[in-house]
Design goal:
Layout lengths: L1 E2 L3 E3 L7 E2 L9 H9 L1 H8 L17 H22 L8 H10 L1 H15 L11 H10 L1 H13 L27 E10 L4 E11 L2 E7 L6 H16 L10 E7 L4 E5 L3 H22 L10 H4 L9 H6 L3 H5 L6 E14 L2 E6 L4 E6 L12 E12 L4 E5 L5 E4 L3
Parallel strand pairs: 6-7, 11-13
Antiparallel strand pairs: 1-2, 2-3, 4-5, 5-6, 7-8, 9-10, 9-12, 10-11, 12-13, 12-14
Helix pairs in contact: 1-2, 3-5, 3-7, 4-5, 5-6, 8-9
Length: 407
């Protein structure tokens, strides 16, 4: 990668970009990502006019992430309508009427999946996968329904005081104070700290505020830290919380259980504020570097959607060693090398240059988008070993990607 103050030239053909600038306000997840790897943060958010007209590098979304998006979207719609109807729980008579009006869970799931897949139509990295994704999500409809119903059944409801409660922070709401009641998808600001967050659910009562956050994946220690950050935002948001209503506790709602998060004390909130301010300063200093520093780590880089653009990943971690060492079973790995020659209509002799090893590369079509002599990076190829020929075989699957490098 060669870089300038405003832009950079990638080693991947057709992937030059313009560096992203740090945001005016930071979210917890964005700040954490910038701390883990400033290079990844920048590459994900930079502009790529040669690739597409969208913002950032087109994401390569896994089924699990899309499944989580669908569950969150349905939860938002259902809860917003239940609260607007003044339901006291998810099982009372008025809640049943609300769900009927929405078309029931089956209709909501179908509509949400269709909407989520449609948003991927302009994404060049998802081309050719949309029908497969739509089918896979549809097959998970019973699981989606079960997760949504289970989570909603454990949500704390607080009926709003209609006469005195100002508008809440739904999609059309403003920055008015939140009164007693349950409020979904509330954006919180700590302007002095330049921090922002979107709480899945705030339940305000005469005793205080309960923050609920829905998690579709496995428990993670970072979830509790994120919840404490939401508590800091609520404490510092003078528009949403002008009366300084205290936090009672937080609730992390997973598919099968809940976790309570104790409310931080004022001293703990002040210490967290100082820590986050320091993180913001460090992140902005590193993101101003050209290029921003990279922190390659195998357990983290294997999930990075822009690792094909990151030279330190290919240079320091040498991912192709996974492919060349394959001997038992099938594994998945990344590799970089040169195509020596075509071996058959759908196979090539591929040299892993750093490993000084040749492997047989199999392609799903006879027009794979590269030719003999090209240097390429391959991600998520299936790697196996053929005992009869003592040959390592790398297979490009539907989950793989191929990137041709500059000469």
């Amino acid at each position: 990668m060669t870089t300038e103050r405003s832009g950079f030239h990638s080693a991947v053909v057709g992937s030059d970009g313009v560096w992203a600038e740090p945001p005016v306000t930071w979210s917890y997840s964005s700040l954490r990502e910038a701390a883990e790897c400033p290079r990844r943060w920048s590459l994900v958010r930079s502009s790529y006019p040669e690739v597409w007209e969208g913002n950032g590098y087109p994401p390569r979304l896994a089924l699990a992430a899309l499944l989580g998006d669908v569950v969150h979207s349905i939860l938002e719609v259902v809860l917003r309508n239940l609260f607007a109807a003044g339901c006291e729980s998810a099982s009372d008579a008025s809640a049943v009427e609300v769900l009927k009006h929405l078309g029931g869970y089956s209709k909501l799931i179908e509509t949400t999946i269709r909407s989520r897949v449609k948003r991927l139509e302009d994404n060049p990295r998802m081309a050719g996968r949309l029908e497969t994704i739509r089918t896979a999500l549809g097959a998970r409809a019973p699981e989606i329904r079960q997760h949504v119903q289970s989570m909603i059944s454990r949500v704390p409801f607080e009926v709003a005081r209609r006469a005195s409660t100002p508008p809440t922070g739904g999609p059309s709401g403003g920055r008015s104070p939140l009164g007693v009641g349950s409020h979904s998808e509330v954006e919180l600001h700590a302007r002095r700290l330049r921090l922002v967050g979107r709480a899945d659910l705030l339940t305000v009562s005469v005793d205080g505020c309960v923050i609920t956050d829905f998690k579709t994946g496995a428990p993670d220690p970072h979830h509790q830290e994120q919840m404490r950050t939401y508590a800091l935002l609520w404490h510092n948001d003078s528009e949403r919380n002008p009366l300084a209503v205290p936090i009672v506790h937080g609730i992390l709602v997973y598919a099968g259980h809940d976790e309570l998060v104790d409310s931080p004390s004022i001293a703990e909130l002040n210490a967290l504020a100082l820590d986050l301010q320091g993180r913001v300063e460090r992140a902005e200093t590193e993101l101003a570097m050209r290029p921003p520093p990279a922190r390659p780590r195998q357990d983290m880089c294997c999930w990075c959607s822009v690792r094909h653009l990151c030279e330190p990943y290919w240079g320091k971690l040498c991912p192709e060693a996974v492919v060349s060492a394959t001997r038992v079973g099938t594994t998945f790995g990344d590799c970089e090398g040169v195509l020596l020659r075509q071996n058959g209509p759908r196979s090539w002799l591929f040299r892993l240059e750093r490993e000084h090893a040749d492997v047989l590369l199999r392609t799903p079509t006879e027009t794979p988008g590269f030719r003999a002599g090209d240097r390429v990076r391959l991600t998520n190829v299936a790697c196996g070993f053929e005992d009869d020929t003592q040959q390592v075989i790398a297979t490009i699957t539907q989950g793989s990607e191929t990137f041709v490098l500059r000469p």
